[in-house]
Design brief:
By secondary structure, this protein is of the alpha+beta class. The chain is about 25% helix and about 25% strand. A 3-stranded antiparallel beta sheet has the order 3-4-5, with helices on one face. It has a two-stranded antiparallel sheet with strand order 1-2.
């Protein structure tokens, strides 16, 4: 039943499979790709769907601090609530990457509706670090 609800869609990035057909993603893999697509798309990027995407891209030059982390959490949750109805977002955590000053890790914890299967996805968000040291972890 849940598999029918999830369905299938074109694999991302788009490619062909061994038979020469458009490759499809199915099940949980399709949902994971859809989440990544929502988060990687800036609103206004798609001409025929200008509202689609996540506004985290407005924060590329923002300082990595708790205020920015809160805004990222809000934008991720609201965009996934709007654009990916097959999941229920449980929690969004924002973490600084200790190995790279220009990366913020967005940990999305979610469940596929109709199942009792908690999942998570870590999405790297690349920022332009300022010359000033960050003021506390994100």
């Amino acid at each position: 039943m849940a598999e029918q609800f999830i369905g299938s869609g074109w694999a991302f990035p788009m490619r062909v499979d061994a038979s020469g057909s458009v490759a499809l993603a199915r099940g949980q893999r399709e949902i994971e790709q859809a989440i990544r697509l929502v988060l990687a798309t800036a609103p206004g990027e798609r001409p025929m769907r200008p509202e689609f995407g996540c506004a985290i891209h407005d924060l590329v030059f923002a300082p990595v601090n708790e205020a920015t982390a809160g805004r990222i959490r809000y934008e991720v949750r609201s965009s996934l609530d709007r654009w990916e109805p097959r999941i229920e977002v449980a929690e969004v955590n924002v973490l600084e990457d200790n190995d790279d000053d220009g990366v913020v890790l967005i940990d999305v914890r979610y469940a596929i509706r109709g199942t009792n299967s908690p999942r998570n996805l870590v999405f790297p968000f690349y920022t332009i670090p300022s010359d000033e040291p960050s003021t506390g972890g994100a």
